[in-house]
Structures are given as C-alpha cells and as structure tokens.
Amino acid sequence: MIQIGQEIHNRYKVIKKLGSGNFSQTFEVEDLLGINSSNLGKRKVLKVLKLSYYSNSKMREKVVELFQREVEVLKQLTHPGIPRVEPDSYFRFVPNKNNQDDFLHCLVMEKIDGLTLEEWLRQNNQLITEAQAIDWLKQLIVILKEIHPKYLHRDIKPDNIMIRPNGQLVLIDFGAVKALTQKYIIQQITSQNTSIGTLGYMPPEMMNEQEAYPQSDFFSLGRTFVRLLSGKHPSDFTQDLQTQQLFWRNEATHISERLLNLIDFLMEPDWKNRPKNTQEILLSMIDLLMEIIDDNHNYYNNILIIRRVKHSNYNFIKSGVLIFSIVLNLFLIGLLIKVDYPRHVVVLLMFVVLSILFISLVFPLEFPLFIKRVYKLLLSRKI
Question: What is the pLDDT of residue 81?
C-alpha cells in the first residue's frame, strides 16, 4: 500500500505513519511542491481510504461516498477549529502503474501540531479544572455552530479533538460526517463490524434507530467531558435502568453543580430533551458564567468586609497605643519639671521621651513590644 519514504502524487513524501482506523490510514507527509511557496516543505496529513476491508461493491461505493463527503465538508468549512484543506487536496493515486484500475482515494489536510485530548489526559495524568472545562466546552460549541447548519460530525470523542500549543481546540476526523439534508441509514456499514461512532460516546438513537440529529453530537460532547472531568471512560460507569442516566458525578467532585447539570443536559437519553441547538447551549453557558461572576463578586465583597473590620480594629489599636504613648510622655515631662536632675540625666530623659513619641507615631503596633524589650534591657543592666 503506502510505504515510508514513498513519493505520492509527485508531490508528497511519506514521513511516517500516524494511525489507522476502520475507514482509513493516516500518514505524515512533506509537501515537496505546494501551490505557493508557503506550502513548500510543509508537513501535512495524508489520509488514505482503506477499501480492502469491503468486498461488497455496494459497500465500497458507500465508503467512498463517505470519504468524498468528508472532502467536500472540509473544503466548505473555514474555522481555526477545523483542519484546513486546499482545492486540490483530494486525488486518486495509483501505487502500481501496471494496474491502473487499482487506485487509492487520498486526502491531504492541515497537520495539527499538538495532542488529542485523550493523549493530553494521559500525559498530564490529571483531570481538567472547571475553568478549563468551560473554556473547552465553549470552543467546541462554537466549532459545532460552524458545522451544524449543514452537517453532523457523529463521532465526537477525546481522540477526535486536538489541542494546539496556543490552547485552540481542533475537531478532527470528519469521516463519519453526515449531511443534514440526507436521511442516511448506517445499518449496511454496521453489518460488517464497522460502526459510525464510538461505544461509550455514541448516543442511543444512533445505536437503536441508526439515525443522527444535531443533538447526537451534543450527547457525544457531554460524554467527552465525562471522560475529561472524571478520568474514566463513559462505559465504566453504571446507568439507571429506567432513566438511562449515567452515574458519574461522584468522580467529578471538583466541579460545580451548575456545570455538572449542563453536562447532564447534553447527555439526556432522549435526544428531544437535549438542547435544541448550539445557541441554547451558549446561552446556558452565559448564565453559568454570570452565576460564577456573582459568586466571585459576593466572595470579594465578603473579603472587603473582613478587611474593613480588621482595618477598624487596627485603627482602634493604633489610636490606643498613641494615646498611651502621649500619656507616658506627659508623665516623663512632669518628672523633669518637678525634680532637679543632673544635666546628663535630663538629656537622657529627653531622649527617651522623643524616642517613645517617634516610635509610637511611626510604629504604633510595634510600640508595646519595644517597651517590653527596653524594660528587659534595663533590668538586665540593673540601671
């Protein structure tokens, strides 16, 4: 099939194999030509359709149709959260020139630098925070907002979401994409152990009715956040036998109830009970963020109140110390007036008076400690 180091389509040099799925294999390639100079030598992803798994001619036609649909979808969508493709990204490649009828369907697309969210989770060995969850959920909803007017993704999961070094999420693998204008039934493909969607992330309607809706992507998105927030695969959790609700919240105790409710809303077993569209989810997120802001506002107000009380106590102590120092200075001055001390004693007492006054004004809270230390010093020297 495809070999490392092989030159494809007189333009792409195969660098390494990236992965293999039910429908295709992916390779990292180097663009030796490029439409313009910016593409020259640039690394890209080559996706090659695997038809060897399908002996039935009708099945092969359907798989090719899915692949070509992915090409058309990616050409129409322009968003930083979706891999870019160029007008000539799709082509047929003949690996054996002696057999022109044996060709491969190929698609070249932007190579996303970064990790999938599944890889990120394993590499960091930690759950995402609530702030990360809100940011990532918002990004993915905006990407779906770009897709859903015409298409459904139908295979959202951590393995199909990548994160760039700058934190931008990218939804990848549009091989299972479906046009909203078509009623495409997947029964034929699933009959050969090749399913569209992934167990644990696949909504009930795709498993039972073999049909998908925009709300089907919401369900898979919710299950994706179950994985990210709990660290466990959704299939590892039990479900309520009657309601089919997933028991997963105990594994995400670091997340607020508001966000947990939103995730469960996305995963309602009946697709009709899920959000109607991406706008409804974004509005729910705005409400969520407003509640968080209100909570933070109340929190900081409480801190300010505590600080004001502390500041009032500080001022009270400061005033008391100052009054004490003034009384002490008046007492020392009175001693100087009434008693006829030697000259050097008078100078010494005046120095003490001025020192106490200065310290009490500049360091009012440290004044009692200063007095205590001076007293101990005088006792130790037996003056």
Answer: 94
- For 305-333, letters b (16+ CB in 10 Å) and e give eeeeeeeeeeeeeeeebeebbeebbeeee
Question: Would you state the torsion angle of the CA atoms of residues 9, 174, 19, 5, taken in this order, to the nearest 10 degrees?
Answer: 10
Model confidence band, residue 173 (pLDDT cutoffs 50, 70, 90): confident
User: Which one, of 282, 261, 270, lies nearest residue 204 by Cα?
Assistant: 270
- Whether residue 58 has pLDDT greater than 80: yes
Q: Do 272 and 252 contact (CB within 8 A), yes or no?
A: no
* pLDDT confidence bin for 192, thresholds 50/70/90: very low
Kindly list the catalytic residues: 155
Q: Whole-model pTM above 0.90?
A: no
The amino acid present at 124, given as its one-letter code, is N
The total of other beta-carbon atoms located within 10 Å of residue 52's CB is 8
Q: Is the dihedral of CA 287, 289, 292, 293 positive or negative?
A: negative
pLDDT for 338 equals 57
Nearest to 324 by CA among 376, 332, 313, 378: 332
Side-chain-side CA neighbours of residue 300 (13 Å): 5
Question: pLDDT tens, 119-164?
Answer: 999 999 999 999 999 999 999 999 999 999 888 898 999 999 999 9
What pLDDT score was predicted for residue 312? Answer: 52
Contacts of 314 (CB under 8 A, 6+ apart): 365
Rg value, the chain, Cα: 36
Q: What's the CATH superfamily of 1-111?
A: Phosphorylase Kinase; domain 1 (3.30.200.20)
Give CATH superfamily name and number for 113-276.
Transferase(Phosphotransferase) domain 1 (1.10.510.10)
Residue 76 to residue 78: CA distance in whole angstroms: 6
